[in-house]
Amino acid sequence: MLEPVNVSLESLNLMTLAPMLIPIIGALLILVIDIFKSNLDKTLYVMLSLLFLLMDFGSLVDASGIFVQDGTIMGVFDVMLIDGLAILSQFIIVGASMLFIPLALSHDRFHEFSYPEFFALFLFMISGFQFMVATDNLILVFVGLETSSLALYTLIAMHNRDKSFEAAIKYFTMGALAAGFYSFGAMVFYALTGSVEINQIATVLAANGYADIGYVLVAVTFMLASFGFKLSIVPFHIWAPDVYEGSSSAMAGYMSIVPKIAAFVVAMRLFEFLIHSGIIWLEVVLYIFVVVTMTAANIWALVQSDVKRMLAYSSISHAGFVMAAILIGTTQSNSALFLYWILFSFTNLGSFSMLWMSRQKHLPVHQTSDHSYDKFAGMIKTAPVAAVIMALFMLSLAGLPPFALFWGKLYMISSAVTSGYTILALVMALNSAIAGYYYIKLVVYMFMKEPVLGNDGHVYVSNATLALKSIIGFAAIGTIFAFVAVNPLLEFITAFVYNSGY
Amino acid sequence: MLDHILSVLIFFPALAAVFGFMIQKESIRAYGIIVALIEFILSLWLWFAFDSNVSGMQFMEQLPIVPSFGINYILGVDGVSLFIIILAAFFTMIGIASLTETPNEKNMIITLLFLQMTMIGVFAALDGIVFYIFWELSLVPMLYLIGAWGGPLRVYASVKFFLYTFAGSLVMLVGMLFMAYFFYQATGVWSFAILDWYRLILPENFQLWLFAAFFIGFAIKVPMFPFHTWLPYAHGQAPTIGSVILAAILLKMGTYAFIRFSLPLFPDASVYFMYPVAILAIIMIIYTAMVAYAQKDIKQVVAYSSVSHMGVIILGTFAMNVEGITGSVFLMIAHGVVSGALFLLVGVIYDRRHTKMMDQFGGIAHVMPRYATIFGIMMMASVGMPLTINFVGEFLSLLGFYQQSHTLTILAGIAIIVGAIYMLAAYKKMFFGTVTIEENKNLPDVNKRELVALIPLTIITIWLGVYPKPVLEPINNSVESIVQLMHNKATTEEAKERIPNLLEGVEISRTPMQEAN
């Protein structure tokens, strides 16, 4: 006779689900509103999404307060794991989403924003990312990953141009492949250790002294490939530029930040214990991936003729740069990862928003693509403020002090120096120099060339509204005055990362 | 206000530049001149308040930026940096004052004011990262100056300038991070403060690597052979004001950084690398002098001669004794004044004829006597004639290095004589003979606006050539303490021997703030 299982509700710690449930409730609410009254304006949905994201953010602040007091919290049969990494990455996810969603309030009407489903999917996607980072359980990671990815594919396709469909299908195919790799890798881990919890896997593997190292490597390989796709690590990056080009600029900026931080956190949880247990092979492969991703993506970015594609390759390169943190695997490097990504999200969202603001519905004759370099020629003469702001974002991305990303780079290179990765530190520094070229190229176009005939400067702000301008202004202020925020951020991040045991 | 005079000096032009955006296009020039004048008066006030008997840092300021990572906003001046700061303020002022009609004048003046902020910041910074911030920031206004107002190849020249220096300084940044890490290992505290680093004695092999990392950053900036290839392009394409500031101030950042960082931080490595660096410097002197002789463009002659003289500065710096380093600091000022003036003079003739080719001239002395006179004085100063400013610096630099190596010094001395040949040849081609080209017959002589810039420079050239003491003394005091610090820090026998021990008692004075840190 089976004993009835008694689980007290308190032991489930259902509050750990609160941050994920808030966007889900929001998404369902949006769908329900649409059923009762359709054809409501996008502004309503934007503000609703923003409200729910704010609530989400508030619940995260609450969770971080609890973390500071009690340390790591487990919940829901120990599936949920709210530690410092989970909280930090959720802050980034929700914060960047809050910066993103007002971009829907563009001047021109775009197809996707007229559907309430867009906003529902968007909120579902966020909860997916949140689940992904707030768990130790490979199955829940998978669920979160797929929820968010499926939503994201649809969001891209909703942009409703030929290129968007192409992008969505490409992303979908690659994502499906990655999902397959992921589940196969997780299966091997389960077969080896009888558990899908990362810390259990680590304990069991350590207990038998990595006896089945061959199988471990098989599992690691599949995992690496799957995360390679998600993080667009070279050679798994091929989808990225096309997908960025196909999606709207705002969405591309979003994709370069939020999905990646979620994947980084999972990669950090999974790979760091493996590296620290002395799997040389993984270390070597990661080292190669990091160096190749940084360098190759930089070199491809050099030859792009479209700013958006350039930014796509630059995002790949930045991902490689940050991947180094996982390879180094010290508290300092992991803190550097979060610091870098927070500063990066400001700058990168800012620069993609600038592209979004200059998005035209119809291309003029002389322009071959949406955001060719020519389009920006002589911008200082026709739209000086926009040109200065764009240049600011470019210089920040290049790592010029004292703008935001410099501090991230500084701390990241320093973490390489401290852990004895001297060559890596030099490679990172020199890659920043290579990257300097293509960022400066845009500055050169904007400041030193003559405007294309018939360009009166209206094109740069053709899509501008107050909402877009305030987001860009916010990003610009964050980029310039980053040096004020670095110290509190660093202390906050380091405390959280350290207390989570990374 | 005197307590924060360095911050005021740094941020006043930047603030003024921000306000400058509001000013109407036609009135910006007066605004620029007034701001630069106030800045120059402030810098003179700094000199006036500066106590030249104190060898250590004065007017120190400190504010935390990222205290948990040891980054603080620390400023201070000593005799080495004081005069370069004044020079920077001075050249921005006369640069703006002598600006001829340019398109987008407003953008240019705002850019110049931002550039001034970064220049003064570099020389006043006493924290590695703050130094790096200003060092890198100075690239952006210069990039814009060359790229927007330059000659036909301006984009290529400006991007080349930017990338070269940017790549070099990133390697230097890695070196700084190592330095901070070693300090952390030794003391348990992160610090990027240069005065803290001065206290750190590193093993020789660490010093060698770090010296190399810093060297790449500085050598590209100087620019030393074989990293000099960006400079002729930058000078060739830059507008007059860009060349003037580049030659007078920006290049000094590299040589100044050698004295501020490389020598006191790595005394053993500096001695170890003394001969290689000196040989590079001598190659630089001779090779660029020969290249200068082959030029047809007068601006290129001045540019290459400027590089050539930077070699003498390096040589003096690496003499590692008081005479040599004092001489090289003095020569930095002298070189700034003289090559700045020469670039201004080239600009004068370019404005009239829109060509810089020497074969387009000849016999100009008959048409423009005042111009020829000033050019003659500056040219004499440039070749190092006694009683001009350059002579003092070159003489002291070579005297210093003579104590380390006779042969190399004699080689360098010969090279300076070669320098006289190309300058005199160029002068002859341009100014003597008869006027052969019709257009040259009616060239107007220098006008008032140009004289405003040129007369003070001429006065300084001769005044400091005859009586260098007011400048030389503060420099000397600070250099003595640096040399003594190097001697105390040196660990190898050879370094102890090469770097003279001056006294027992001279120590870099530290403010209580530093001790607390």
Class by SSE composition of chain B:
mainly alpha
Oligomer: heterodimer
Mean pLDDT of chain B: 88
User: Could you tell me the strand content of chain B as a percent range?
Assistant: under 5%
Largest sheet of chain B: 2 strands, antiparallel
- Order of helical and strand elements of chain B: HHEEHHHHHHHHHHHHHHHHHHHHH
Beta-strand proportion of chain A: under 5%
| Total strands of chain A | 2
Gyration radius from CA atoms of chain A, angstroms:
22 Å
* Structural class estimated from helices and strands of chain A: mainly alpha
Question: Would you give an account of this structure?
Answer:
The complex is a heterodimer of chains A (502) and B (517). Chain A is mainly α and 502 residues long. Chain A has one domain (10-499). Chain A contains 21 helices and two strands. Chain A has a two-stranded antiparallel sheet with strand order 1-2. Chain A is globular and about 80 Å long. The N and C termini of chain A lie far apart (45 Å). The model of chain A has no long low-confidence stretch (mean pLDDT 88). Chain B contains 23 helices and two strands. In chain B, β1 (58-66) and β2 (71-77) form a beta hairpin. In chain B, strands 1-2 form a two-stranded antiparallel sheet. The radius of gyration of chain B is 22 Å and the shape is globular. Chain B has helices spanning 5-20, 28-49, 79-97, 105-124, 128-137, 139-149, 154-187, 194-198, 204-221, 230-237, 240-265, 267-272, 274-293, 298-317, 322-353, 364-367, 369-383, 389-402, 406-431, 448-466, 469-489, 493-498, 512-516; strands at 58-66, 71-77. In chain B, 73% of the residues lie in helices and 3% in strands. Chain B has 517 residues and is mostly helical. Chain B has a domain at 273-466. The A-B interface holds A 380, 395, 398-402, 406-407, 410-411, 413-414, 417-418, 422, 425-426, 429-430, 432-433, 436-437, 440-441, 443-444, 447-449, 483, 486-487, 490-491, 494 and B 64-69, 107, 129, 132-133, 136-137, 139-140, 143-144, 147-148, 154-155, 158-159, 162-163, 166-167, 170-171, 173-174, 177-178, 180-181, 184.
